[in-house]
Amino acid sequence: MRILPAPRNPPHDRNARPRPLAMSADTRAAWPKDVMTTEHSRPNRSGKPRHQDGGKPRFNRAPKPNHNHNPRRHRDEPEEKFIRRALPDIDTPFTQMGIDARVAINLPGLGIETPSPIQEKSIPGIVAGRDLLGLAQTGTGKTAAFGLPMLTRLLNIGRKPEPRTCRALILAPTRELATQIAENIDNYAAGTPIRQFRVVGGASINVQVQRLERGVDVLIATPGRLIDLIERGAIDLSQTGYLVLDEADQMLDIGFIHALRRIARMLPKERQTLLFSATMPKLMAELADSYLTDPLKVAVNPPGQAAEKIEQGVHFVNQGDKATLLAEYLSKHTDELAIVFGRTKHGSEKLSKLLEKWGYKVAAIHGNKSQGQRERALASFRAGDTKVLVATDVAARGLDIPQVAHVYNYDLPNVPENYVHRIGR
Questions:
Q1: Between vectors from CA 244 to CA 241 and to CA 248, what angle results, nearest 5°?
Q2: Cβ distance 126 to 274 under 8 Å?
Q3: For residues 189 and 149, is the Cβ–Cβ distance under 8 A?
Q4: Could you give the count of Cα atoms lying within 13 Å of 304 in the half-sphere of its Cβ?
Q5: What band does 5 get if pLDDT is binned at 50, 70 and 90?
Q6: pTM to 2 decimals?
Q7: Is the pLDDT of residue 334 over 80?
Q8: For FRET with 181, which of 138, 273, 400, 409 sits at 20 to 30 Å CA-CA?
Q9: Is residue 189 within 8 Å of 257, Cβ to Cβ?
Q10: 54 phi/psi in degrees, rounded to 5
Q11: Is 192 within 8 Å of 151 (Cβ atoms)?
Q12: In 3-state terms, what secondary structure has residue 349?
């Protein structure tokens, strides 16, 4: 047992009365007036004067940081979207074809005043619910031809999609084309509750899985990444009533036929299907027969024929002189955008570095570039910061960049039909 020593007390008189522990009355009342203290002048327990405003001394201290606040927490959350509540009262060529006024009101701001031939022939039938087989080149307005009636039909549903489902599915062969379609759908649907989401390779699949948990109205995808998400159980296509195959012939060329057949088995039989292509090879006709039911057939240009407004020329030159001849043409049009097509990824990269060495503002997109590199290259080219874009057929398929003034076929394409795609910017 440990014995603690008794506390030491100062000596005192045993007969003295104990001192009270606290005063029970305010003794300041008995103090002379001239020596009375105020709350401002009376010192505190530490002997330091109190603050002039009373209470404890105040200091100009910086506010304490809030460690629980994470500025990145809301970065990935969707921004609040403006929704137009009132139905616009407008009469345009598009509303006369059945396009919802909430969609048609956005078109003049996008430079779309009158329907293009493919839109004029396609939209009424799509609004009526018909399947469609469209033959049209890049730059003819295909995206609006299927996007505007699709949004009109989705707006008439009037409720949100179920989790992990999509109401409309748009398949594209390349990441760049999928991105371009997504941007156009966003512009068409401005002011409506319709939301689109793009899923492509090269981006985080975990982020895509998380976003699809809430369901989407319009899903734009490349076939390969869509298969990956289906295998993970991130998306259910049983409620998808609207299917679009854009640049379908290109999807067949790069080997997506098996992925397309697998995706088709997961879709409901009662659906509307739209198929767009610039060419009509034999396998394309077989695909159309299996996907479409009594389709409306629309052809703007005959298959394999370039648009009439494009001026074409050819030069016969030795392989070693091609780069010099290309530089001569680029030097004549330094302020205009140009696309240079190569046949291989390695050759395109080598040519882009050579042109950059010669002082041209150049970027390259091909299969060896990451998704971020390809997106930055295209953004710089669209903005005019880069004047020359060197690309392969797969990377640039379906891109619609109206500012492009010149297309150079540095290498001839492996597939003759790709020539039409190249020059139809």
A1: 145
A2: yes
A3: no
A4: 5
A5: low
A6: 0.69
A7: yes
A8: 409
A9: no
A10: 90, 160
A11: yes
A12: helix
